[in-house]
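Lab notebook, design round three. We kept the backbone fixed and only want residue identities now. Task for the bench partner: fill in a sequence for the structure below.
Input structure tokens:
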């Protein structure tokens, strides 16, 4: 079995590789300007969250004594990251997977970003659960990332006409439907986040 540090290194390498490969594929298939391509590429919650995974795991392995390394290794940071990447996996596999059918290398990268990395991060998180206990109020700070992402998506979509996901496409669904979808997603974030906190508290006490 891989050590915790080795698992973090593997996740980092896999994340960086998948993100870079996805970017190169996007460039190869692009019909828009490079600047617009870059903006759109980093407008996907999947890409941003996998980038967070890559940076955090790299920091844990290569910069353990730095400020970012200490922060990334904190239980509250690891649990928040686990929440975000699990949402990536859940939304894709239950909502978006059936909307397109990638093949070849595109499908492999797709599975890495939306299935394999979420599973590996969950395993890393599960193995890292320990004291100190995570406070329930942490969930409120965790919701800031998806909230700002949603506001950015609405702003960018209104100015460019590009919406990265169909459930936030105001031009098709209308703002009322998109707001309802966002509230539903917020509830998923909230409940899953609280569940992760509960699990960490129960296991930390058991291992205590």
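Proposed sequence:
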């Amino acid at each position: 079995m891989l050590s915790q540090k080795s698992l973090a290194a593997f996740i980092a390498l896999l994340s960086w590789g998948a993100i870079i490969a996805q970017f190169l594929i996007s460039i190869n298939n692009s019909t828009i300007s490079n600047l617009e391509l870059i903006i759109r590429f980093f407008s996907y919650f999947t890409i941003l969250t996998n980038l967070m995974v890559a940076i955090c795991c790299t920091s844990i392995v290569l910069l353990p004594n730095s400020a970012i390394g200490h922060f990334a290794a904190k239980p509250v940071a690891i649990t928040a990251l686990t929440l975000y990447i699990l949402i990536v996996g859940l939304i894709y596999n239950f909502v978006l997977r059936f909307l397109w059918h990638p093949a070849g290398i595109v499908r492999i990268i797709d599975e890495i970003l939306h299935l394999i990395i979420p599973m590996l991060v969950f395993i890393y998180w599960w193995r890292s659960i320990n004291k100190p206990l995570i406070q329930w109020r942490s969930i409120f700070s965790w919701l800031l990332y998806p909230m700002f992402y949603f506001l950015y998506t609405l702003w960018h979509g209104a100015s460019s006409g590009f919406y990265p996901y169909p459930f936030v496409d105001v031009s098709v669904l209308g703002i009322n439907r998109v707001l309802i979808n966002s509230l539903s997603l917020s509830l998923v974030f909230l409940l899953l986040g609280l569940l992760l906190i509960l699990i960490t508290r129960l296991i930390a006490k058991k291992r205590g």
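Keep this in mind before ordering anything: The chain has a mean pLDDT of 94.
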